[in-house]
Backbone:
DNA sequence: TCTGGGGTCCTAGGACCC
DNA sequence: TCTGGGGTCCTAGGACCC
């Protein structure tokens, strides 16, 4: 049995945790630079606020309906996410954190112990709510795709009340026949359109297809999805939690930048983020993709990207930053209004099997980076920086509606007034 | 006045090589 | 009459997810 535990409109709910005054109000959260809407709480959803619409296009509508607006507060979300994941982890010995607000659980040895999955799901929900004040949905299924579908049912379909269990023909039919085919994990709008032409409208319709035919017509991925919807596990636990094959950090700037120093600082910061993520999954990077561009909405769209290949794969921030300094001059162009930039590790190797260079001393110092990570995890990302990241905040993102960092800054700790 | 997210994976097609 | 390989690497863009 698999479970997917997923917070209900996580960013919006996180904003409500330390601010009870907005708990019963419609709340939306904006993406970086306050660009688009990226989270809509259930109350705001009822008003018809769409996800991923540019903010400026819907500003007036939000004002009319007194919707509370927040900029993305990643420091807060990352912290609450960790707390939530820790609570969930107590309920199963195998957890895989799939994204900031979702984790899969694999109940390999629990089949005989847990008699009532519904009850168990509610137990998880209650514990998370009690300890973090975050609402979650819990979906159980015999495959990861069914667990994902169950989670959708738990949160979006009436009658489930936050927990759904899909473990037999009846329960699977009941939920899937009420779900659009595009609500299935892995079926997006494009595939959805093509499936519609074939008369496949609901998730249940898709489950009824022959896997072989789906493979022939579409891809091996759709075949796998059909099998999974029928309780045939194709995504083994090891596959679900495989390390990432690419790791990117990219961001648009709050203000356009034109100086090479600002671009250098921004790229260096991205390389530090990539470094951290590499170390988290015990990977090393062999090739690094480094890029910067003006806005695609601009007249003279400029973009430039380069690949830097390391002689010996690394996860060391200093070496990543060095790569940036080497390619910087080839990417930078005077008179370009840079709008975004980023760094991507595109060829990764397993940290356990590093191929060293016979003629070069190993410059990787795991202890240094280990210490770096520990300090930043404890005192907040950015506490310890590379000098190359700079102290100027000129290129930092716009966050006009930022809530306090309740959990990660001393001066922002909530005060209880008696 | 102007504003338009970020991350991961996959594939088609071109360039190049033998 | 007409036809003409196969592999690797790179890049851009598509698709999907949150």
Residues:
């Amino acid at each position: 049995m698999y479970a997917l535990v997923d917070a209900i409109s996580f960013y919006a709910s996180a904003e409500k945790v330390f601010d009870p005054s907005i708990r019963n109000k419609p709340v939306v959260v904006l993406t970086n630079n306050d660009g688009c809407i990226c989270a809509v709480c259930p109350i705001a959803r009822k008003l018809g606020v769409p996800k991923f619409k540019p903010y400026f296009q819907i500003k007036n509508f939000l004002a009319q309906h007194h919707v509370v607006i927040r900029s993305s507060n990643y420091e807060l979300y990352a912290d609450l996410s960790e707390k939530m994941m820790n609570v969930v982890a107590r309920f199963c010995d195998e957890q895989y954190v799939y994204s900031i607000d979702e984790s899969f659980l694999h109940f390999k040895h629990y089949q005989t112990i847990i008699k009532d999955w519904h009850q168990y799901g509610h137990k998880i929900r209650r514990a998370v709510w009690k300890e973090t004040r975050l609402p979650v949905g819990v979906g159980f299924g015999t495959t990861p795709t069914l667990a994902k579908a169950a989670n959708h049912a738990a949160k979006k379909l009436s009658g489930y009340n936050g927990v759904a269990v899909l473990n037999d023909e009846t329960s699977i039919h009941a939920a899937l026949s009420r779900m659009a085919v595009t609500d299935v994990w892995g079926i997006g709008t494009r595939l959805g359109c093509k499936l519609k032409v074939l008369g496949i409208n609901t998730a249940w319709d898709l489950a009824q297809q022959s896997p072989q035919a789906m493979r022939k017509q579409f891809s091996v991925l759709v075949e796998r999805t059909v099998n999974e919807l029928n309780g045939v596990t194709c995504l083994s636990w090891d596959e679900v939690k495989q390390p990432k094959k690419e790791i990117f950090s990219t961001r648009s700037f709050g203000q356009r930048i034109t100086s090479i120093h600002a671009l250098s600082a921004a790229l260096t910061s991205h390389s530090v983020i990539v470094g951290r993520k590499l170390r988290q999954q015990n990977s090393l990077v062999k090739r690094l993709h480094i890029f910067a561009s003006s806005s695609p909405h601009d007249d003279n769209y400029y973009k430039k990207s380069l690949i830097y290949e390391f002689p010996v794969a690394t996860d060391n921030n200093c070496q990543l930053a060095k790569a940036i300094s080497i390619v910087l001059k080839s990417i930078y162009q005077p008179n370009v209004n840079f709008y975004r930039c980023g760094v991507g590790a595109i060829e990764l190797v397993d940290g356990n099997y590093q191929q060293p260079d016979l003629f070069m001393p190993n410059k990787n110092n795991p202890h240094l980076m280990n210490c770096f990570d520990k300090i930043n995890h404890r005192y907040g990302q950015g506490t310890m920086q590379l000098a190359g990241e700079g102290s100027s905040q000129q290129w930092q993102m716009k966050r006009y509606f930022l809530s306090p960092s309740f959990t990660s800054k001393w001066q922002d700790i909530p005060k209880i007034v008696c």
